[in-house]
Amino acid sequence: MEKFIWAFIVGGGICVIGQILMDVFRLTPAHTMCTLVVAGAVLGGLGLYDPLVKFAGAGASVPISSFGNSLLKGAILESQQNGIIGALTGIFEITSSGISAAIVFGFLASLIFKSKG
């Protein structure tokens, strides 16, 4: 039960940071999303994001900041094995299943539901 509470607090905290970026700093949603992705990559590079995921579970692995951490992790892993070209291919290899799932489920949803616009 305690794990659920921490997941809610950490995930909610990440969302609050995003909302503050939009409300206080007047960033657009696209700028906010990019900022959170870069923040996740920086925290991952400093070795701070993986402990956060271990502590908060889905509260840290579901938000967009986790995507930045995954991109960096894939780039580092592949660059160690294949050099500089691995840094480019690694970001696609580690994140491709999530992106593919989003495209497939988005398409399926568009077949089931009608848009209002």
For the biggest sheet, the summary is: none
Please, how many domains? 1
Distance between the termini: 42 Å
Rg from Cα: 16 Å
Low-confidence stretches: none
Q: Helicity, in percent? A: over 70%
Total of helices: 6
Give the tally of β-strands: 0
Mean pLDDT: 94
Q: Helices and strands, in N-to-C order?
A: HHHHHH
Beta content comes to under 5%
Given the C-alpha coordinates, what overall shape results? globular
Q: Would you tell me the structural class of the helices and strands?
A: mainly alpha
Could you characterize the architecture of this molecule?
With 117 residues, the protein is mainly α. It has helices at 2-23, 29-45, 49-56, 58-61, 65-82, 84-112. The protein has one domain (2-112). The protein has 6 helices and no strands. The chain starts with a helix and ends in a 5-residue tail after the last helix.
